[in-house]
Specification:
The chain has seven helices and 22 strands. The chain is mainly beta. Strand 17 and strand 18 form a beta hairpin.
Length: about 450
């Protein structure tokens, strides 16, 4: 399977050649004024022009259906609780660490130097030395390069998401193969390979998840050196030690609702928690996405989430697993309006009523509203949901009772037509009385 190594070397070679502004994979190169440098690609990659092309990306946004703006959409209903300032960070217990098999080395987390630059992709972060340039940034990951752009030689580091793994490529030489674990106990397959790229050695250490995610993609941490001589190994190892997974970031995240919810807000988002700590709403600015967590009366009381999103006769229920918990899911094809990059658009709301309650019996519910784009792309949903975590306390128990649904009001029965008013009969006019005949006798002389 050659495409894994070929795709990575293509991304590295072209990314370094075009470095300056970072490029997303879907951006046309001619918009950046790219000038042919006269070096054919087949001189850079083993196999020449006959090398197989990378597989087409399955989630190319250019293929996504365009959002159809709707005229004057109605705003999505929001719970009535008064917003409060976002809560301050509260120290929380770290998540449960997976048991690391005996003999598997652990890559201990080390804070980066103060002047290093932070990078993020799909909830993962790492830091790189100043001066390292982003040469690839797309939904498939981010790659930074710290070498010589003229000769392409030097080190690079990346976190990538791919359906192929480096150890499955058959055009490389496997130098070592084993396992390593991150600080949160996640065990990775660890392989180091070498291959030829334009007559020079490209050495890559790839640490990948043993199983793919729901998009059938592996998470891969790449430590690469072109024209390898080994001098960059220490800095690559230092970069790897700065990696934080979404689980590691959640361990130091702020909490709300008395510790029930941990959250790492995306850039530009706001958090609003009500005064009695029963409802937390997190939303993007401009208003495009919201996610609301609620307990107790904020779920079942007047104006609560049940009434807003589940009781409607248009909401379609069904059982689902959400954030690791069994929940009743209600999908509402509501006429909700959201502000998007291209103007207002229609959106929908998913409402999740957990089957578990807090120890005191308080129900737990989550509402997620967005324009249609969030629900069409699973990677966007994954990126959003992994920023939040529910911390159900000991003693939480099964308690789910189906939400009473509002039945549509029956149409009124047809009423009989009123009887027509009687038509008044015309009164006959009296017959004319003839005039009396003249008295002829009285007129004689």
């Amino acid at each position: 399977m050659k495409r894994s190594f070929t795709r990575f070397t293509c991304s590295l070679a072209l990314g370094v050649a075009l470095a300056g502004p970072s490029l997303g994979q879907d951006e046309p190169l001619d918009e950046f004024g790219i000038v042919d440098d006269g070096v054919p690609l087949d001189e850079l990659l083993q196999g020449g022009a006959d090398s197989p092309l990378p597989e087409p990306e399955p989630y190319d946004e250019a293929d996504a259906p365009a959002a159809t703006p709707a005229p004057e959409p109605a705003p999505a209903p929001q719970p009535q609780a008064a917003p409060q300032a976002a809560p301050q960070a509260v120290p929380t217990a770290p998540p449960e660490v997976n048991a690391v098999p005996e003999g598997v080395p652990v890559i201990a987390y080390a804070p980066p130097p103060a002047d290093w630059v932070m990078h993020e992709t799909h909830g993962y972060t790492f830091a790189a030395p100043p001066g390292w340039e982003v040469v690839k940034e797309s939904r498939q990951g981010v790659v930074v390069f710290g070498g010589d752009k003229e000769t392409f030689s030097g080190p690079s580091f990346g976190i990538m998401f791919d359906r192929s793994r480096m150890q499955d490529a058959d055009e490389v030489t496997v130098l070592s193969q084993g396992q390593a674990a991150l600080s949160d106990g996640i065990v990775l397959d660890d392989v180091t390979v070498e291959g030829d790229m334009g007559g020079k050695t490209l050495r890559v250490r790839a640490l990948s998840t043993p199983q793919p995610n729901e998009d059938r993609e592996y998470t891969i941490f790449m430590l690469a050196q072109y024209a390898w001589q080994g001098e960059a190994d220490p800095v690559l190892e230092q970069i790897l030690a700065t990696v934080k997974t979404p689980q590691m970031r959640m361990a130091e995240a702020p909490t709300a609702l008395n510790g029930l919810v941990s959250h790492v807000l995306p850039e530009g988002w706001k958090a609003e928690e009500n005064a009695d700590h029963t409802q937390l709403t997190l939303r993007a600015e401009p208003y495009r996405t919201f996610i609301t967590f609620a307990t107790g009366a904020a779920v079942t009381g007047p104006g609560g989430l049940d009434q807003l999103y589940a009781a409607s006769s248009s909401a379609t229920p069904g059982e689902e697993v959400f954030m690791g918990f069994v929940a009743e899911e209600y999908f509402d094809y509501g006429d909700y309006g959201f502000a998007g990059e291209d103007g207002d658009s229609w959106g929908n709301v998913y409402y999740y009523r957990l089957h578990e309650c807090l120890p005191d019996g308080s129900p737990i519910a989550i509402a997620v509203g967005d324009s249609e784009s969030l629900f069409e792309h699973s990677d966007e949903r994954r990126d959003l949901y992994q920023r939040f975590r529910l911390n159900l306390p000991a003693g939480s128990r099964e308690c789910f009772v189906p939400v009473a649904r509002a039945e549509p009001e029956p149409e009124p029965a047809p009423q009989p037509a009123p009887a027509p008013a009687p038509v008044a009969k015309p009164v006959p006019s009296p017959a004319p009385v003839p005039s009396p005949a003249p008295d002829t006798d009285a007129a004689a002389p």
